[in-house]
Amino acid sequence: MSSNSRELHAVLYSMMAADPRLRNSVVLIETDNSTTKAYINHLGGRSRFLSSVAHRLWSVTNPYGITLRAVHRPGVENRRADLLSRWRQDSTDLKLHPKFFRQADRQWGRHTVDLFATRLNTQLARFVSWRPDPEAEAVDAFQFPLSGENPWCFPPEALIPRLLGLLTRQRATVTLVAPQWPGKPWWPDLIRMMIDKPIKLPNHHSTLQAIGTNEFSGFPHWNLAIFRISGAPSALVAAQTF
C-alpha cells in the first residue's frame, strides 16, 4: 500500500478497535499525513480506493454516533507516535505453517477459536488478541469463556503456566503449540494434562513464519510439538490408556 493508504487504514483500524465509551462523541485525529486529514474531513476525495477506505471509516463510526475531526500534526511534534509506528516486529508475532494446523484440526478439530493471535497470524476466523485488534472477537484470552469452545493455542512460552492453570480452573480442553523443553517448571504439568500423543513438528525453516516477512524462518532450538491437553478430570481419566 501507499503511505497515504497505510495512514488512513491506521485510523480505520484504530476506530474499529476503539473503546465503547467513545459512543456519541467527537474524536480528534492527529495525523502527520495531509491526505489522511483531507479524506477524513471530507469523507473522500479523488482516489476511489482511498475514498472507499474513508467511507468504510464512516460506516464504522456513524452507527455509534462518533464524529471524526482530523488535524495535521507534523511528525517532529508527535515523536512518540512516530517512534511507535516504526517499532520492530514483536518477537511473539509468529505463525505456524497452516499445513500443521490442518493436521491438528483433522485429528482434534474442528477448532472454534484461536486464543492467542492477531489478524495477521490467526489460523481461524474467530480469534482473541492480547490487545485491541480490529478483527478480534475479544481481547485477553484469560478473560475469554472456554465453555463450549475447542480452542487452538500458540501462546508465548512465558504464558504457558498461566494457561495450564486456566484450563484446570475451567476444566477445559485445548490444542496447544509449545516447545518441548523438559527443563521448564511447567513441563510436568503439561505432560500430566496430555490426553493424546503429541504431534512433533520438524525443526525446519518452513515450520514457522515471522509475521512481517514473506519468508518462513527456522527456529530449530524451539523443538515444537502440538499437544492435546485438558484440565477436565473426566478427559484425563479417559485418556489414561493412550
Textual characterization of the structure:
By secondary structure, this protein is an alpha/beta fold. The chain has two domains: 82 residues, no CATH class; 145 residues, Rossmann fold, CATH 3.40.50. It has eight helices and twelve strands. β10 and β11 form a beta hairpin. α1 crosses α2 and α1 packs parallel to α3. The chain is elongated and about 65 Å long. It starts with a helix and ends with a helix.
CATH-derived topology of the largest domain: Rossmann fold
Ranges where pLDDT stays below 50 over 5 or more residues in a row are none
Main beta-sheet strand count, sense and barrel state: 5 strands, mixed
- Return the string of H and E elements: HEHHEHEHEEEEHEHEEEEH
- Share of helical residues: 25-40%
Shape: elongated
Helix segment tally = 8
**Structural class computed from helices and strand pairing:** alpha/beta
**What integer is the average pLDDT?**
88
Supply the CATH architecture of the largest domain: 3-Layer(aba) Sandwich
Terminus-to-terminus distance: 51 Å
Give a brief description.
The protein has about 240 residues and is of the alpha/beta class. It has 8 helices and 12 strands. About 35% of the residues lie in helices and about 20% in strands.
